[in-house]
Amino acid sequence: MRKLIVEAEVSLDGIVNSPDIWGEVFKHHSKDVTDYLHQLLLSQDALVLGRKTYEAFAKVWPEMDNENAEKINGMPKYVASRTLDPALDWNATLIEGNIPEEILRLKQENGNNLLQYGIGELTHTMLKNKLIDEIQLIVYPFTFGKGERWFDVIDVSSFGLLDSKSFSSGAILLRYQPK
């Protein structure tokens, strides 16, 4: 069975989503952070995305020209949404019906792992249904103060630490397994 890995980049105060946060995050993308994220991406077969992440990614990734863009643009994308039109572009398929059942079906297919970028309502649904095998948080050494905090969308959950790693920029990777 394939694993489902959630990867999120977060400030020290827990912000995962804010219109202005990415400029600060990218300042801390040292070569070792970039290399790690690149290797993580290369080891996945498909992306599982919520609507907001799909819409944001579909605007920027098709216009990029690098190895990560080539991989992301070519990967199948499975999008969980109750509002998007089923006729998606960018090599994407809408997950319709019972989202947890469909994600379990994807996990049961042969192949490498599935990757979800970001944390939101979809993450909450997958955690509640015990579909997530690993959460990888890259915590950056800055506070942002405003925006969506990753724990605002997650119910009380317990995690076991699988591994941690520090990067030259001061960022820290925390790899957790939901209990």
Automatic annotation (TrEMBL):
Molecular function GO labels: 5-amino-6-(5-phosphoribosylamino)uracil reductase activity
Coiled coil: none
GO terms for biological process, alphabetical: riboflavin biosynthetic process
Residue span(s) of domain Bacterial bifunctional deaminase-reductase C-terminal: 2-171
Domain of life: Bacteria
Name of this chain's protein: Dihydrofolate reductase family protein
